[in-house]
């Protein structure tokens, strides 16, 4: 989290036991972090940024449900490439 007058700080760092994938529990941690930010007085726009390990329906749904903006890197697979290729130059 950051403000116009402060440097960014890490808002959450989930610890998972054992051999767990990066996205395990990500939607829950995302929701808790957004709630914590708002509880601490955040009234401005909240933007969630995540890498491709967190490209999952649950993470996107959580951002939408909490009405925050988000930027999640998508893996380039056949479906994503086809969707990108279908975007015309004028769009």
Report on the architecture of this protein.
- The chain is of the alpha+beta class.
- It has a domain at 46-91.
- Helices cover 34% and strands 9% of the residues.
- The protein contains three helices and two strands.
- The protein has helices at 26-39, 57-65, 78-85; strands spanning 47-50, 69-72.
- The chain has a two-stranded parallel ribbon.
- Helix 2 (57-65) links the parallel strand 1 (47-50) and strand 2 (69-72).
- Helix 1 packs parallel to helix 2 (57-65).
- The protein is globular.
- The mean pLDDT is 87.
- The low-pLDDT segments are none
Indicate the radius of gyration in whole angstroms.
Answer: 16 Å
Distance between the termini: 33 Å
Quote the average pLDDT: 87
Strand content: 5-15%
Main sheet record: 2 strands, parallel
What structural category do the secondary elements indicate? alpha+beta
Shape: globular
Give me the side-by-side strand order of the main sheet.
Answer: 1-2
Strand tally, please? 2
What is the overall number of helices? 3
How much helix is in the residues? 25-40%
Task: Tell me the series of helices and strands, N- to C-terminal.
Answer: HEHEH
């Amino acid at each position: 989290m950051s403000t116009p007058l402060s440097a960014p700080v890490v808002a959450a760092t989930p610890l998972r036991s054992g051999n767990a994938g990066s996205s395990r529990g990500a939607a829950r941690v995302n929701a808790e972090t957004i709630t914590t930010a708002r509880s601490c007085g955040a009234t401005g726009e909240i933007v969630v940024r995540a890498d491709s390990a967190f490209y999952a329906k649950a993470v996107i749904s959580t951002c939408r449900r909490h009405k925050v903006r988000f930027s999640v890197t998508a893996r380039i697979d056949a479906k994503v490439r086809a969707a990108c290729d279908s975007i015309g130059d004028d769009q």
